[in-house]
Amino acid sequence: MNEFKCKLCKKEFSDYDGLRRHTGRIHKVNSTDFYVEFYLKGEWPVCKCGCKKKVKWSKQLKSFRDFCAGHQSRISNNWGHNPTAIEKSAETRRRQYANGEREPWCKGLTKKTDKRLEDQGKTISENFSSDRKKRYSIIMSENRKNGTIPTLFGPQSSQWKGGISEVNNIARSSKRLYDEWKYPILVRDGFKCVECTSTDKQLHIHHDKEKMCEIVKKHMPDLECITDFELKKSIAEKIVDYHIKNKISGITLCSDCHEKYHPSLNFV
Predict the structure, then answer these.
(1) Per residue in 177-196, pLDDT tens?
(2) Among residues 234, 238, 251, 231, which one has the least CA distance to residue 177?
(3) Helices 212-219 and 164-172 sit at what angle, rounded to 10 degrees?
(4) d(CA 195, CA 201)
């Protein structure tokens, strides 16, 4: 029985080439699809790097490629899989950043002023799956520990705002703020969340009108940096006084409901 038989019309041929020309001319099936169907039993080959993407046909090789473009370096990459070379490169970059030879390409740019950052932000938001977030978090954590990404504190941090966070924490932990502002609100709301009525979860007092960050900024002196702890304490006392004297509006929320208003914070 002739094994070169067309699956579409059952016509038989004496060789593979005759069958290939027939399917292309009569059934309009291109050579690549014919090769997959006849030789590979309908299974299109995928990249050997493990990404599971389909590879392209090579006219020079007269067969499918082993890898997608650029993916071979994921397997055969002496530099990328050499811990000594990676550490040496990281050390060089750290030195260059420290002495000013190298700067981040996006330094001073924002999504509002640079379209590249705006587009990248949209792409990340649309494609950032939970698994990818977890993987990035692990990578960032490892890079922090091994020094690839330096951890910057105080005035060196890009988020430094003159010591606002420390003043904020001192004010929030004030016993007088609890006794004279938070506790009366808890009593008024019956020691339960005003949104879900929960009494089992940790209860917070949420600034529902004038925000805490606005109050802190209002009382911060016009200084680039505050290093004196006593000055920080005096500013925190003024913030507490402001809450009590002006009867700042607040409501009782459980940790889950409070997180809805501040999704970027961790209330656990």
Answers:
(1) 999 999 999 999 999 999 99
(2) 238
(3) 120
(4) 13
